[in-house]
Amino acid sequence: MNIIIVKYLEIVILIILSLMSDIETYKIKNIIVYPFIIIGIITNLYLDGIGGLFFSLKGVIIPIFLLNILFILRMLGAGDIKLFSAIGAIMGGKFVLYTILYSFLCGGFIALLLIIIRKNAMERFKELYIYLKNSFITSSILPYTDFKDKSDGGKFRFTMAVTCGICISLIQM
């Protein structure tokens, strides 16, 4: 079987399971992402030996370093970062960088659509203003949101944006 098909299959299964988990529980469970990190490393190790191992490890580490500040600010959940790491383990560092970029662009588009549909632009901008003002006044980095608060009209499942980012990245390959 062609190895590209194997990697595509791994990515498709990963994102479907992650979407289902996020929609059902508002979390991407470790039982989903950790096995795919291992599968990605094993696949690439098998294909390219030690070079494949480094290819996967770079893909795992890049999201952790790039997205850590968004986790600290509670703008992104740990599950999202682990999902990006699993994607990187399978497809490598360059692919995960593009996927992160496209995911955030798609996330911005989804957020804009939701603001238009929900007609809550003023409420969202007011919340952002208050956050920035409080962060400036206290000279500290405050959490932006509480992920456990499901009543907040500004949230959506980021795995939807990640799915779009993966699709765009796959097309770009």
UniProtKB/TrEMBL annotation:
The chain crosses the membrane at residues 6-23, 30-47, 53-74, 95-116. InterPro entries: Prepilin_IV_endopep_pep. It holds the Pfam family Peptidase_A24. Keywords: Membrane, Transmembrane, Transmembrane helix. One of its GO terms (cellular component) is membrane. GO terms for molecular function: aspartic-type endopeptidase activity. This is Prepilin peptidase CpaA.
